[in-house]
Design brief:
Layout: H1 13-41, H2 45-72, H3 74-82
Helix pairs in contact: 1-2, 2-3
Bound molecules: fe (ii) ion.
């Protein structure tokens, strides 16, 4: 699914906030991948350490968003507990 969804003016505040959180989570995960690629590409040890630190901060941000989503989306939370 791509692009903006329809009828956004009819969406509840809860739906909009969950969408914001999910989009933010996507961006944090993407950032982790970007940092990891740069970590593996650079030959500069100082830059590598800095990027590793930043990558791990993005992991923390992702975890915070997952926690928020679990708190606000009952079904999603259940899936964390019940998946195979
Ligand atoms: Fe972040």
């Amino acid at each position: 699914m791509t692009g903006e969804m329809e009828g956004r003016e009819n969406l509840s505040d809860e739906t909009m906030d969950l969408e914001r959180a999910r989009k933010s989570l996507c961006e944090e995960l993407e950032a982790i991948n970007w940092y990891q690629e740069r970590i593996e590409a650079t030959k500069d040890g100082e830059l590598k350490k800095l990027l590793e630190h930043n990558r791990d901060e993005e992991k923390e941000h992702a975890a915070m968003l997952i926690e928020y989503i679990r708190k606000k989306d009952e079904v999603q939370n259940k899936m964390f507990e019940e998946h195979d």
